[in-house]
Every structure is written in structure tokens, then in C-alpha cells.
Amino acid sequence: MTTQPTNSSERVPILDASDIVRARGVARQVAGRIGFGLADQTRLATAVSELARNVVQYGEDGFCEIVDASDHNEMRLGILVEDHGSGIDNIDKAMKDGYTTGGGLGAGLPGTRRLMDEFVIESEPGLTRISIALVRKRS
Amino acid sequence: MKIPILRLGRILLSSIQVDLTDADAMQFQDDLVNKIAEIEALGIVIDITSLEVVDSFMARVINDTAGMARLLGAEVVICGVQPYVAMTLVEMGRDLIGVDCTFNLDQGLEIIKARIEMRGDARMIEGEG
Amino acid sequence: MTTNSLAPIVTLLQQHRAAISSEWMTEVLRVWMRLYPGLVNEDELRRQADALLKELGKLFSEHSGEAPPDITGNSELGEIARELSSERAKKGFKPADTAQYVITLKNVLTQHLVRTLNESPTSLTLCLRAVDDVLDRLSLLTFDAFVETRERVIAQQSLSLVELSTPVILLWNNVLLLPLIGVIDTVRARQLTERLLESITKHEASVTLIDVTGVPVFDTSVARHIMKAIDAAQLLGSRIVMTGISPEGAQTLTKLGISFANVISRATLRAGLAEALQLVGRRIEFTGGVHK
Amino acid sequence: MNKISVYVAGEPNVAEAVRTAKLMASELGFARIQAYYIATAASELAANLFIHADGGMFEVSALTDRPGLELVVTDHGPGIADIEKALQDGYSTAGGLGCGLPGVQRLMDEMDINSQPGQGTVVRARKWL
Which of A1, A39, A139 sits opposite C194 (nearest CB)? Predict the structure, then answer.
């Protein structure tokens, strides 16, 4: 008796700074459609903003994929941000507060991790993939 | 996209009404700092009611702008931070925004005026000028 | 087509369905009406019983081979059982009284089978085993559904408990009170922070009192949750006055190295209220009083 | 009833661990403030079990040779690479306030940590009556 989740996904290419605003707009929209509250919509939009900016700053080109993976038990929004830049040398260091190479506050990645329920990062020269997800039980 | 900066005596008011791109934000910072210098502003109120996303970059722009304004001798108040924006900011990390905040332009203006009144330069220079 | 060794059950369910249904319901209703008066809908129950017996008949008639019929293949049957027992769970029936339903049916069916098949013991054994097996599984299914429903009810209750226990109170113009009571975990902290921030914005509360008298233990994670709420409130423009830290709490927090440096703290809600009124430029005055 | 175990996999279990520790402390005759310290230490230790490992066992036991109470937490998580560093104030690997373990050390009379990187961690903390 399993209901097949009605998964859908949207992909936003990230090539320059104007795509950051677009990507987070789409994330907010999808989150709202799934039924996430305003607070969670803001968390998701902010997280996408952080990750998309990383792509613009270090990744040259990439994309952001926003996936609705909800089922009848929980709401789940997964986001994959992928870029084809030089990669992150030292992931541990990049995940530390206050560490930055690009003039930000250095709260980007660690801040995003704190906002999300799931956070996975893989990086090698030429390919960096960060997947995040926010999960809420349906009440 | 140019964000309007209004002048009210020696106070500057600005209300960010749209979702800003990075370039817009930097342009705004530049415009504002120049305007402060031009009119020797004593105070600035920035209304960010319409900002639905303040990420670490935007937080830095706000902080930096406030820091620059202070160096130029102006008091700064931010108003209209949305509840969810505030929550997201503190979850990302403490102290992302280190500027005084209040609810709306009205109160922002009141606070700024009260602060300016305490200042020596406002009392002396205005009075003699 | 192979012969169906369970044909006697099928015949029984066809020819004596009315009798079986009535015996079964009489017994179930006798018990339930006594224990849960007013919670039993007789017509509904009889309708369900007929539907269930019909499905059972279908299950046995479609059966062939050695193994007992598999009820998981018959979703209709499972659905009826589920519906019934989740309804019982919602109405607060005890699990044993709910299980009574299927057990009674088993007794009735067994009696009928023994009566009709006492001439052919081999067939009787086969049929009894099949009835046993199918009804046992049905009973497990109803039990599962019962527990599932109960758990959902409990989860909902605890959710509403969380909502109930975090009110935000408008004490005076621009002064809010958030009394914290009980264990503060991540989910609750998130909810109460959301609620607090919304109220602060709505009432433009320039001062917020957070009373922690009801917080049982102050450790770093509780302190962190409260600190986040405070930081966010300050970003909106509200000043925070914390009240109700016990002497034990103050000693422990200091030992843990937590200072709440950017917060005004007062021992009692009374002192905190005075402070809050002072911050909004008001005070409480003695007016002579009615009672001397 | 001289030893009670609670398996801690998430926040609800922490509350249970704290209740257990507080109850045993007061039954053993600890003063109010001491019981509060013990409860808080229990909360810190139990929370570590699911923050730093996937969960683990929390035990409270009454000590008899010398009257007192012992808290023991055991996990099979990644272990603590640098115990000395973990005992410094302000050091945290999981975005905490960084005063968990040093706090426990101050709240209890004795604490020892046994950690094998990759194998897990056992922390024992005692308080004497």
C-alpha cells in the first residue's frame, strides 16, 4: 500500500550573479507549493542563495536542481548544486566558521549546514556537488 | 536597478523594495556612501522590509555599509527585518548583523533623531550655522 | 481447475452468512455496548460485518492448492479490517476489546464448521486450519492498524501540547511576555521562536520578557536555543529582559561559561516587569487603593 | 536500583536521562544545587551521544565504596581526536557553544575520557556526596 511520491524537479542554470536571485526564487516557490511554512521557505531560499553564490564566485558555471521528494508521511525538498570549477581544496576548512577565500563573511557553507537537515558535499577539481535537504513531518 | 536614497535634512532614508542582485547591492553601497559624504549626513535609516532573503553576502553588505557610514560620522539604524529573515540569520551564525534594528521607518527615524540630538556636532554646528 | 479443499467454508459462508453474521454481531455488540455505550453504531457494524464476510467468502472460493489462502492478496479485506480497528482506536477502545471482534468471528465460524463437517474429520481439520490461519492474520492486521492509529493520535496530542505550552502574551502596549515551561528541544525551540518573532512584529514590541521559571534544566543546548531566540528578537528591534533564573540556574550557567551578556536579567517576573515598563517609559503607581 | 541505563538516540531520550539522573541524585541525598549540577552534566553528556555519534548508552549509577554518583556515556562514534582541545573552553566541532565537556568537568568532581579515534568514546563523570 505505498503511494508513489509525485516527484518533480526544476533545474536552474547558474552562470552569473543574476541567476542567484532566480534560483532562490524558484526554491521558495517550490517550497511554498509543497506546503513548507514561511520560515522554512526563507531557510531554503537563503541556503540556495549561499550555494548559488559559491558557484558564481568559484565555480565558473553550474546549475541548481530543486527536487520535490515528498511522500504522504513527510515533506522533503532536496537541492543539488553542482559546478565545474576548480573544486574545494580543503572541505574541512571550508566548513569552518570564519574561513573564506572570496571576501564573504565565511559563514556561507557552515551557515547553510546549520539551516538544513541534510548536507552532503563532494568536491574534486572540475566537479563540486553539494546536496542539501529540508525534511518536515506532515502533521 | 537604482535604489532611491531620500534626503530629509541631514538624514538619509532608503527603502529597499526589491530582491537585490549582488551588483545592485554593491551599487547601493557605493551610492549611499557617496551621498553621506556629499551632504555630511548625520544619520541613515535603511528599510529592508521587502528583503525576503538576507544571506551571508547581503548581511556583509549591510554591515559594511553601516561600518562605512560610521567612519563618515553617521548614525545607522536598520528597520523592518522580517521575522523569518531574523531567524535564518541567527541560525546561520551569531552576529551576522551587528547594526541596531527597529520595526519601521517611523521608529527608525525617531531613534536616529534622538541619537543625533545627543551629539556634540549636531548641537554646536547646527546652532552656530 | 483443481478441486478446492476449502469448498465447505465457501458453502457455509454462502448459505449461512446471515446466521453467522447475526451470531457474531450479537456477541460483539453485547460486549461493546456494555463497555463503550454510545460509541457503537450498530447499523454501521452490521454493514461492515456483511462486507467482511462477503470478502472472506471470495477469498476462500478463489483459493486452490495446499497453502492456506494469503490475505495480503486481498486488499479489500485488509481495508475493511483497518478501517474498523482504526475507528476503534480513535474512539479510545482498549486493544483487547478491539481484538475481540476477529476472535469472536473465529469462534462462530469454528462452531459452524464443526457442526457441518463432523462426518468428515479430514476436511474439518483442513478447513479449521485455514480459518485459523486467515483469521489470525486478519487479527494481526487489525492490531497493526490499531497501534498505528494510536501512535498518530499520540503524536498529534504531543504536537498540540507543544502549541499549548508556548503562548506569547501581550502584557502592555509594546511589551510581550514569553513564559517558557518544560523541556526545550530543537523542534519546540524552533516553534516558539517563530511564534515569538511573529508576535514581536505584529505588536511592534519594543521590550520582550522571557520568563524561564519553568525550565527544569539549563544546559548549553537550552541556553543556545534561548540565545538564538533572543538574537533574532533583537534583530527585529525588541529589547530582551530575561526573568526567573533560579539560584541553581545562575550557578550552573556561570560554571558552564554562559553569560547572556547582551540581555538584561532579573530574578523575578515582578522585577522584570518593572524594568520593561521603565524601558517603554511607563510605571505602575499607587492610587490610594480600594482595600485598606 | 543502583544503576539505570537509558539508550540515547535523540532529544526525547536526553530528557529521560536528565530525569533519571536528577531522581537518583536526590534519592542518594545530594543537596538541591548538587542535584541540579548533576542533571545539567547529564544533559550535556547525553546530548553529545546523538550530536557527535549516532547514539549511545547513558548510565547513572550509585557508588558505594565512597558514597557518590557516577554518569557514564558510551558511544561508537568517530571518537575525539584531541581530548585536550575538547576540554578547552570555546572549542566545538559541531556549531555548539563549545562549553559542553569543560562545563561537565566543572559541574562534577571527577571526569575521565577514554576515546579511540574511529572506535568510540567513553566518558565517566563522578560526584561525591
Answer: A39
